[in-house]
Design brief:
Blueprint: E1 51-55, E2 58-61, H1 62-71, H2 79-101, H3 108-132, H4 138-152, E3 155-164, H5 167-179, H6 184-191, E4 197-204, H7 211-217, E5 230-232, E6 235-246, H8 252-277
Helix pairs in contact: 4-8
Length: 298
């Protein structure tokens, strides 16, 4: 049975993946044969299978070797490439075992890197599995498209801004801008090195802008500067609307793939939020998950 995930909550999830590297996922004091426990082996949680090699007591199985070979762009069915992959893997195991037998494995930064590599790979693969189980119906795609079209309001806005971390700096820049002594383009040049960002943002429709931007620019006339500092999650903005124009959305077929990807992302975020809502987490300072939205009819 395929998992049916909702796509009702718009969230963003950033999963950072790192390479498998040396196929290492743990550390200890010595290679197998010189110490006991999984932490003393260069290879941990390797899959079972026929034995390809044994290196200082550590077993390399066929599934692990084939995965390694293909990750290096080598074909284990071709004798010369198989030999190249096997030699490379043995050398990497020897280096890893040497690290575990010395003081290198005791470094906190290396221990953290190895632990996070394993965690991030597991996280990445589980996210991929969740994505594969999302079933987006044709009507959901069309409904999403229609909602996005309505959100554009049939307009797009050419915006310029100055962005500051400190609200006091933003207020001072706004006062200077409202004084009208120089074009806004001159202020962009003046604050380019004195702010988080100072630039012309070009045209964007409301679906592409922070909601605070949308609220501000829709109340401005062409060429007008927002009379108050606009705060978003990025910081504090001094905004100017250069001009607005009609926006014609692309046809549905042109954005179908992008719409599906967005709905899959939203479903994945719903799934992660559901996991967090039932998890036992003690983390002072961490944000609390929002309640899961009710589905129609509930």
């Amino acid at each position: 049975m395929r998992l049916r995930l909702t796509a009702s909550c718009v969230l963003r999830l950033v999963l950072v993946a790192v390479p498998l590297g040396l196929l290492l996922s743990g550390c200890g004091n010595a290679p197998e044969g010189q110490g006991d426990g999984a932490g003393s082996r260069a290879l941990r949680d390797a899959p079972d299978g026929p034995v390809v090699a044994v290196v200082n007591g550590e077993t390399v199985t066929q599934p692990l070797f084939e995965f390694y070979a293909r990750s290096q762009g080598l074909d284990p069915e071709v004798p010369a490439q198989r030999q190249q992959a096997l030699d490379s893997l043995i050398e990497q195991m020897l280096l890893a075992q040497a690290a575990l037998s010395g003081t290198l494995a005791q470094r906190v930064d290396l221990q953290a890197e190895l632990a996070l590599t394993r965690l991030q790979q597991l996280s990445l693969r589980q996210a991929e599995a969740f994505r594969d189980d999302v079933d987006v119906a044709e009507q959901e795609l069309r409904d999403y498209y229609q909602r996005e079209v309505e959100r554009t309001r049939g307009q797009e806005f050419h915006v310029q801004h100055l962005l500051f971390a400190d609200p006091a700096d933003a207020a001072a820049a706004l006062s200077e801008a409202m004084a009208g002594g120089q074009p806004f383009e001159s202020l962009i040049a003046e604050y380019e090195g004195r702010s988080l960002q100072a630039r012309d943002l070009g045209f964007a429709n409301p679906t592409q802008m922070p909601p605070e931007f949308v609220e501000a620019v829709t109340q401005l006339e062409d060429g007008q500067i927002a009379p108050v500092v606009v705060q978003t999650r990025f910081g504090h903005h001094v905004l100017r609307l250069v001009e607005r124009r009609a926006f014609v959305p692309p046809p549905f077929e042109q954005i179908r793939d992008g719409a599906r990807q967005q709905l899959v992302n939203q479903a994945l975020a719903d799934r992660v939020r559901a996991l967090r809502s039932t998890a036992a987490v003690t983390a002072p300072g961490a944000s609390m998950p929002e309640p899961m939205p009710s589905q129609p009819g509930e």
